[in-house]
Specification:
Helix content: 40-55%
Mean pLDDT: 94
CATH architecture of the largest domain: Up-down Bundle
Order of helices and strands: EEEHEEEEHEHHHHEHHEEHEHEHEE
Structural class: alpha/beta
Low-confidence stretches: none
CATH class of the largest domain: Mainly Alpha
Strand order of the largest sheet: 2-1-4-5-6-7
Radius of gyration: 22 Å
Number of domains: 2
């Protein structure tokens, strides 16, 4: 997959600008706070319908404007296509080939992307929410069925949690089984999809990490909870678990079991990475997971995703920079940095210098 042209209008600090990208390495360069990451963020938004940097889309609108627009012309094995997003204060519209997309899940996966920046250390060092978010966003780009199940699961879970706060205990215990039937169905679909995805991700990330560290470190990824069996078997187990813990859930006021509580165990050299690894180790582990994600997308889609590397090269030592550049040479890469000549070592690329939200 290749993004050929990107137009930003009133997006972040851009009034209106159009970028032309090559199919290989594209370097957005310039001083800090000029708009390099904003451009990279726009590409990722068109791939996923979401930003990794903010929670509310209105933050993407340029100050003084009432609407932001992102538009891209792209190419895949199936031909040329366009993607667009119109973002307003309290709403947005998504378009594929000029046609409005009614559901966000139908926008996912038209163009796949993997995003890596120094903030991805959260994946290793922060709480389970970050790792679940990583799995959900990654799997959703390759499976709309998963994205739909995740959306429905979230809505049912919210209804069940609201019910658990009701003080009419008779109504609570009478109604819970109804919600449990639906919740367990989508929970099983999510759990099995994560299990299979993580199995492949773990093997790939381990190999990549060994290469990046010259075999000095081992990386292992494993679910903190194993869901064995078929989807129907997992559903029955989850349904039983929900039923056996009504009193606990009522006491807590929320549903304490299910994939919304799961986590990934990340170990470096056999030691839990969270809280025990260095910044450099965490950065390499997160990068290994992201490059493994690229490999999975490539296998499932039959073509590589767009790889976005935001201010990553300055955080890596010389050997790892060279290994990374060697690994991504056959991909379309959008890379941001302040001094291209210091991190690329003559690698062929298209350079785009940005200053104050403009291409100079």
């Amino acid at each position: 997959m290749v993004v050929k042209k990107l137009t930003l209008k009133n997006f972040r600090n851009y009034e209106e600008e159009t970028f032309g990208f090559d199919g290989g390495l594209n370097v957005l360069t310039g001083r800090n706070a000029q708009g390099k990451t904003n451009c990279a963020e726009a590409v990722f938004y068109l791939c996923t319908g979401a930003s990794l940097r903010i929670r509310h889309d209105r933050q993407l609108i340029r100050r003084g404007a009432d609407c932001a627009r992102i538009y891209a012309e792209a190419e895949s094995n199936f031909g040329n296509f366009t993607l667009a997003a119109n973002i307003r204060e309290n709403s947005r519209e998504l378009f594929f080939n000029g046609n409005k997309v009614r559901r966000s899940v139908d926008f996912l996966g038209n163009m796949k992307s993997v995003f890596f920046s120094p903030s991805e250390l959260r994946l290793i060092q922060d709480g389970p929410d970050e790792r679940r978010r990583f799995l959900n966003l990654s799997i959703s780009q390759t499976s709309r069925d998963y994205a739909s199940a995740l959306l429905r699961y979230g809505r049912i879970l919210e209804q069940r949690n609201n019910l658990l706060k009701d003080r009419d205990m008779g109504a609570v215990f009478e109604t819970l089984p109804v919600w449990d039937e639906q919740l367990a169905t989508y929970a099983a679909r999510i759990a099995v999809a994560r299990r299979e995805y993580l199995k492949e991700l773990s093997a790939l990330a381990a190999d990549i990490h060994a290469d990046l560290t010259d075999g000095a470190e081992t990386l292992t990824l494993a679910p903190d909870r194993t869901y064995r069996g078929t989807e129907e078997e997992v559903r029955e187990k989850l349904l039983k678990e929900l039923g056996e813990n009504y009193e606990r859930d009522v006491r807590l006021g929320f549903t304490a079991a299910g994939p919304h509580r799961d986590d990934i165990k990340i170990c470096i050299g056999g030691t839990d990475a969270r809280g025990y690894c260095s910044q450099g180790q965490a950065r390499t582990a997160a990068l290994s997971m992201k490059l493994a994600e690229v490999a999975i997308f490539t296998r499932l889609a039959g073509e590589a995703p767009v790889l976005i590397l935001d201010d990553v090269m300055s955080e890596l030592d010389l050997p790892r920079r060279k290994k990374l550049l060697a690994r991504v040479r056959d991909l379309q890469v959008i890379l941001t940095c302040t001094h291209a000549e210091r991190v690329l070592y003559g690698a062929p690329c298209k350079k785009i210098r940005i200053q104050g939200g403009k291409i100079v």
